[in-house]
Design goal:
InterPro entries: PGRS_rpt. This is PE-PGRS family protein. By secondary structure, the chain is mostly loops. It has one domain. 12% of the residues lie in helices and 10% in strands. The protein contains six helices and 16 strands. It has a four-stranded parallel beta sheet with strand order 7-11-13-15, with no helix packed on it. A hairpin with a 3-residue loop joins β8 and β9. The longest helix has 14 residues. The radius of gyration is 21 Å and the shape is flat.
Amino acid sequence: MAGGGRAASPKHSPTTKAGTAGRTTAAKSAAGAKRVTSTTVAPPAAADSSSSTTQTAATDTISASTSTGAPTGTPKSAGAAAATPVPSATASPTTPPNLTLTDIIGALVAYAQTGGGSPKVQISFPEIVTALVTNQWQGRPIVGNGADGTAANPDGQGGGWLLGSGGKGYTWTGATCTNNAGCAGGNGGAGGLIGSGGNGGDGANGGTGGAGGSALLFGVGGNGGDGGANTGGVGGDGGAGGTGGLIGGAGGNGGKGGDGLTGGNGGAGGAVVSFGFGYFTGVYHPGSVYGGNGGTGGNGTSGAGGNGGAGGTADLSNDPLWDYLLSVATLLPGVVSPGNAVGGQGGAGGTGTTTGGAGGQGGIAYNYSLGNSTGGKGGNGGAGTTVGGAGGTGGIAVAANGTATAGADGSPGSP
């Protein structure tokens, strides 16, 4: 099946644009300031299991950022050009949830009851038979990849209920986007129980990039689409990467910010909260989890460069039964060490003719299981004619049993 984009690591929330002449950069968050470097740090309390009640809830709750771009294919509003909002305290990237096998079971039950959405869906036995024979239910295949977005319907469709990756979001061009206010790229479709999220489509004429689709159990989050270039204004922001699977996967990379008089911000890397299921080659190799990389900020041709996207959170969860089985497996000959959690790298800031864009914050890394954790490196600041952009703060790291290594800070841009 066609997979969505894989992210190697995570991002801070982009700062708010201040028009076409310059950009106001927000102060670094407290999360970035208190990096953890000790070798054995007790993890925070487990999050409420309601974070896994549906496919949407399971992926949205663990996301380190929220996409609020303009409606797909519609004129780009002033709100669409603004930065991605900071997550609420309940979804703070400094305290990602620790999933348990009970949460996974709850997500599966909710997925079966709602079809990945809401409200609950009733299906009769004859309808089940028809769905299996036709390989279709509610416009979505049982097995197979989702359809790609089109100009009429820009968002990619979901992958097969059981097996399949999400379709790609529609990518606009200067020829297909006739709206001078900009067209936002289509969002990538969600993966099925097993399948990756689709990549987001690119924006045009300053439109935002589409968000990458999310995976559910096994799969990689889709990459965010690139923001559209805008020769007469602010470049579009890149789309956020999709979240990785709950059992195995990785976050998608954030999209690049579009070039413009002022550059657009890079998209946030997708988060992954997962058990990090590994693979077998005669023996079992425990898997690691990686947050998506933040997107690069766009270049400003007569103003500030765009800020780099924050790296995605990487959270390797544990469950008593899972960890017991893992500890037994690692005693077998030839089995490598337990899996690691690696935060996504912050995106580099864009070049500006006034001020360079700030580098994105490195993604945080939590390992509630037996292995190590490594925070994502902060993105480098962009070069600026008057002032270089600040380097992004490296991501914090927490490990319940192994070694925790904070990510390195990014370098400032040259003036």
